[in-house]
Amino acid sequence: xxxxxxxxxxxxxxxxxxxLVMVAQALLALRSTADVGTACAVAGLxxxxxxxxxxxxxxxxxxxxxxxxxxxxxxxxxxxxxxPDGPVEHVLRESLSRFDDGHEESLREAGLWLxxxxxxxxxxxxxxxxxxxxxxxxxxxxxxxxxxDRMVAQTLADALALALERDVLRRSALEERQxxxxxxxxxxxxxxxxxxxxxxxxxxIRSPLTAIKAxxxxxxxxxxxxxxxxxxxxxxINDECDRLTRLVTDILDLSRLExxxxxxxxxxxxxxxxxxxxxDGLMPxxxxxxxxxxxxxxxxxxxxxxxxxLRRLLVNLVGNAxxxxxxxxxxxxxxxxxxxxxxxxxxxxxxxxxxEDMPHVFERFFxxxxxxxxxxxxxxxxxxxxxxxxxLHGGRIWVQASPPHGSRFCFTxxxxxxxxxxxxxxxxxxxxxxxxxxxxxxxxxMVAATMDAEIxxxxxxxxEHGDLFIASSRGLEGQNLLGRRTSVRxxxxxxxxxxxxxxxxNNIETDxxxxxxxxxxxxxxxxLCAPLRVQGEVLGxxxxxxxxxxxxxxxxxxxxxxxxxxxxxxxxxxxxxxxESPRIVSEAVDAVRSVTRxxxxxxxxxxxxxxxxxxxxxxxxxxDPDADLIGYVAxxxxxxxxxxxxxxxxxxxxxxxxxQALTRHPETSVEIIRPLEYLNQVRDLILSHHERWDGRGYxxxxxxxxxxxxxxxxxxxxxxxxxxxxxxxxxxxxxxxAIAELRRxxxxxxxxxxxxxxxxxxxxxxxxxx
Length: 770
Fold this sequence. Notes:
Elements: H1 16-32, H2 36-51, E1 55-61, E2 68-71, E3 77-80, H3 87-94, E4 98-100, E5 119-127, E6 130-139, H4 147-221, H5 230-258, E7 267-268, H6 271-288, E8 292-297, E9 304-305, H7 307-324, E10 330-338, E11 341-347, H8 382-392, E12 396-401, E13 407-414, H9 421-431, H10 434-451, E14 453-461, E15 468-474, E16 485-486, H11 491-499, E17 503-505, E18 527-534, E19 537-547, H12 555-577, H13 583-600, H14 607-619, H15 624-636, H16 645-648, H17 656-673, H18 680-688, H19 709-725, H20 735-745, H21 752-766
Parallel strand pairs: 8-10
Antiparallel strand pairs: 1-2, 1-6, 2-3, 4-5, 5-6, 7-9, 10-11, 11-13, 12-13, 14-15, 14-19, 15-16, 17-18, 18-19
Helix pairs in contact: 1-2, 1-4, 2-4, 4-5, 5-8, 6-7, 7-8, 10-12, 10-13, 12-15, 14-15, 14-19, 14-21, 15-19, 17-18, 18-19, 19-20
């Protein structure tokens, strides 16, 4: 839709009725458009007319990273760096409008305007507790904002916030529908595959079992016959057992490949030698059909691959070519380098594959209709496994006709397993900055303290080589740590870098994905690994080993680690977008150091608090993502204690000054964590964990359901932990007494439902009622 509003030359104040009419027109226009740029123009121009403003700007906030961007009417967004402690930062921090009338010296966000405004109105765009951005109105001369001016501006800002929220919800709904459709399709495919699997497996198993049964019975019937061909019978039984083994192996291999749970065991290998070894193993099958091999492999081609998987891929393709080629035919194998990839194909002289079947040949159990005169044995899984192997290496595979007859199966793979070119460019921007390297060092210390781990390391993408190297570490032994490297897709760290999702390993020696002996340096066999993702690219991974308690890491640990790394990644993104502003990194370093200090002083929520918070949230049927967020907040919500620890650490009752300091610590926590945290939901949870159900809590005096549900959960969990773990000025209490105290205070201090949810969790995990 077009925007009918035009800029108005400043003049006399609008009549209240005229202002209401313009607001009504703007609201109608905002309801009528789904285009964000148009909505911004409608609200901005309407606000300019209503308040006689000179210009406007719309800033959009990325809730994940805290990045601020200007949003044009065209929909184009550009990075924007608010002034330190300026109007935008103040509004985002407080979620309250700010009106600078120009009669006093104050910041004006000078970088947004051609001429610095004489007066400025800055309004948060908040809806349902989430900040979507900021609307700014500039004025060429000082002015006083009346109550009517403020009401009109706030109304338009709220309407625009709803329009932005509607856009976010619309996109989220679209993504959810797409995910639902994909899940439904996968479910349907899974049901069809399961049915097909049962049919194929039953068919494939029936034949060898029938043969095994028949020849076993024949041997039993002829035990007394010295002339019975027992050796031939046993040979047939052995062959049929091998056939069963191949079927089971294929199914297991394919399931692991499709689940993405097969890390690569990479090696630089001589491709020609590996191909020749593979062909030697297939020679008996080829001689039986008088098939010859035509080998054309580039000399000194040394790709980085998993030798076992590559050999399996070649066996599948060459084995198929042997089966389908006519007796006396030739199978051609070709390989050569093409830039950063290597290309290969296996070509047969068989009857060929119909064009309509070619898109399906790599599907599980699909059998192309071929004019072969003899029946070709197989499970129908070989090509599906081949596709999985190629894709696991970051390559692809396809089939094409080979005139005048036959088929050519082609595939490509990277010569080396490296990070993407974009990841390498971003890594270069990161690694050349001393302040970001300092942030990483402090983050390693924070992770070690938060996870209560002895060994933590950060492996970053090498901008030049494209592999991963140790950029920062704590607790690792040995010389030349910077020389320790791993390839992308190799081992635990390389797999996480390729998969882009965090990983929990309970036991490195029994985990079927890795299964390797535990290094003597690691006292426990459990570990965590989480990706550092910046601008959509994985720039590194954090490895966490040796929990000091000697126990295994768990999902609670992984959830908190992922949340912390995501916040640090957001600070890195902002630092890259605004390299001219060192305060972004310095403030993030201060926040990280505060978390580290209090974790080491055991003042912040530990593992038990995180676990109870997540479990209690799920007991209240809070969705998993929100439960994870509550668990993360449980680990950092008391970071404000860093500024008053000295005054409250002693034994005995607290004096008035100490009590006042304690009541301010939620706001202090929000301020400290702000450089890492831009979610309003997190801010609200931190501020509300000392509110009371009866409204007599602090700092905002919220009551009942007005307190965010996550804050009510944290209040109960925090109180239970405080009673059972004790504090410097209070001895710990038995579990039964703590539960009785929570129930006594339910309905006054605590939400009764949150109390009972926590009690159910505690009783269930302790093995009985209290």
